């Protein structure tokens, strides 16, 4: 409701609202830490499609820290895998898939394991 308080929203609704705020004005960089964790899978899919296919400008970079690699990997250009706070592997997404012969999710499981 328009007169509702943010604190009364569900975690998923609050997460959606944070994304609206993040993309509500032009910016060169959006930094998002686990932005999709509280959002149900069908909504995540719609949000990802909107952000990366309909909304994102060419002059904007989006950095996402997430464990939900399988749901976002089709949108990724560059990937950095961290293990114990250190860069374990990084590079262009297509190049990493080709080198490892795996999806980004498979590479994530290998690096994290």
List keywords for this structure.
113 residues, alpha+beta, two-stranded antiparallel sheet, 20% strand, globular
Structure commentary:
- This protein is globular.
- It is an alpha+beta fold and 113 residues long.
- A hairpin with a 2-residue loop joins strand 3 and strand 4.
- Helices cover 42% and strands 20% of the residues.
- The mean pLDDT is 87.
Write the topology of this structure.
Elements: H1 11-22, E1 29-33, H2 41-55, E2 61-65, H3 69-72, E3 78-83, E4 86-92, H4 93-100, H5 104-112
Give the integer mean of the pLDDT values.
87
Which bin fits the share of residues in helices?
40-55%
End-to-end span in angstroms?
A: 44 Å
Q: What percentage of the residues does DSSP assign to strands (E)?
A: 15-25%
Q: What class do helices, strands and sheet pairing give?
A: alpha+beta
Total of DSSP H or I helical runs spanning 4+ residues: 5
Could you give the count of β-strands?
Answer: 4
Order of helices and strands: HEHEHEEHH
Low-pLDDT residue spans? none
Lateral arrangement of strands in the main beta sheet? 1-2
Indicate the overall shape. Answer: globular
Radius of gyration: 16 Å
- Let me know the largest β-sheet: 2 strands, parallel
């Amino acid at each position: 409701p328009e007169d509702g308080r943010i604190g009364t929203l569900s975690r998923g609704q609050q997460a959606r609202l944070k994304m609206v705020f993040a993309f509500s004005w032009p910016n060169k960089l959006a930094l998002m830490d686990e932005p999709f964790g509280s959002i149900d899978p069908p909504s995540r899919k719609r949000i990802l499609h909107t952000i990366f296919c309909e909304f994102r400008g060419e002059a904007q970079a989006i950095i996402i820290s997430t464990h939900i690699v399988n749901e976002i990997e089709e949108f990724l250009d560059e990937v950095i895998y961290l293990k114990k706070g250190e860069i374990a592997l990084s590079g262009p997404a297509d190049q990493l898939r080709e080198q490892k012969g795996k999806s980004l999710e498979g590479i994530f499981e290998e690096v994290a394991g």
